[in-house]
Amino acid sequence: MKNVHQIIGAGVVFGLVSLWFGLTSGVVVGLVAYLGLRVATKQIKAD
Questions:
Q1: Ranges of each domain in the chain
Q2: E strands of 1-47, at which residues?
Q3: What transmembrane ranges does the database entry give (predicted)?
């Protein structure tokens, strides 16, 4: 039974880590896209 608990624990940890990485990468992508849009709109207005 100990192996089952280890597998479940590993699955929970892996799920939390992947969720955290998904959230952080989502925030980073959002910030990059936001900054890219701001720079693009500034360049368009400058023209």
A1: 23-47
A2: none
A3: 12-37
